[in-house]
Automatic annotation (TrEMBL):
<feature type="domain" description="HTH tetR-type">
    <location>
        <begin position="9"/>
        <end position="69"/>
    </location>
</feature>
<keyword id="KW-0805">Transcription regulation</keyword>
<protein>
    <submittedName>
        <fullName>TetR/AcrR family transcriptional regulator</fullName>
    </submittedName>
</protein>
<dbReference type="InterPro" id="IPR050109">
    <property type="entry name" value="HTH-type_TetR-like_transc_reg"/>
</dbReference>
<keyword id="KW-0804">Transcription</keyword>
<dbReference type="InterPro" id="IPR009057">
    <property type="entry name" value="Homeodomain-like_sf"/>
</dbReference>
<dbReference type="InterPro" id="IPR001647">
    <property type="entry name" value="HTH_TetR"/>
</dbReference>
<feature type="DNA-binding region" description="H-T-H motif">
    <location>
        <begin position="32"/>
        <end position="51"/>
    </location>
</feature>
<dbReference type="Pfam" id="PF00440">
    <property type="entry name" value="TetR_N"/>
</dbReference>
<keyword id="KW-0238">DNA-binding</keyword>
Length: 185
């Protein structure tokens, strides 16, 4: 790689990292291109040279953040055949994930309606959680009372549900026991 190309790649990476940190600290709606440039130690024009618009920088930020903070992998519970055990394993993985990544998810959920560039990434997250929920719901096909299983699983996987229980002072184990009770009620 030539020195110029290497320098450009390093500058691009600084911009992405600056965006990622600002999003986590102050949220996407409060992160301006000027703030990104200042944090990255570059001029605004440099940001625009690397990213033509806010959506492009958000996409790069999202990709970088998710590479550093990958969501739970459904393969980790795919082979579990017992429905409640599968549910508990999946939910425990998501609750541990939410514990580690709360700051970013909090500002993302708060800002999504006001930041168009954030709406597609958040829709992608919702689709991913929908797929997880569908898989967990399918594991309960033989359950006698299936009317409440789908809505319960979807609610339990939702970040704001975890946040509400967290704000009440419950540990992840206590949350898991509580939501399992909801499922089995």
């Amino acid at each position: 790689m030539s020195e110029r190309a290497k320098s450009q790649a390093e500058t691009r990476q600084k911009i992405v990292e600056a965006t990622m940190h600002l999003h986590e600290e102050i949220g996407p709606r409060n992160t301006s291109i000027s703030a990104i440039a200042e944090r990255a130690g570059v001029q605004r024009l440099t940001v625009y040279r690397h990213f033509p618009d806010e959506t492009a920088v958000f996409q790069a930020c999202t990709s970088q953040w998710l590479s550093l903070n990958p969501p739970p992998d459904p393969a980790d519970w795919a082979e579990i055949s017992e429905p409640v055990e599968k549910f508990r394993t999946a939910v425990a993985a998501f609750y541990d994930y939410y514990s580690r990544t709360r700051a970013m998810w909090t500002v993302s959920f708060r800002d999504v309606s006001e930041v168009p560039a954030l709406q597609q990434p958040m829709a992608d997250v919702a689709a991913f959680l929908g797929t997880i929920a569908d898989d967990l719901i399918a594991a309960f096909d033989d359950a006698a009372d299936t009317d409440h299983i789908g809505p319960t699983i979807r609610h339990v996987l939702h970040f704001p549900t975890w946040t509400d229980l967290e704000d009440q002072g419950l540990s992840n184990k206590q949350k898991l026991d509580l939501v399992t009770g909801w499922l089995q009620a």
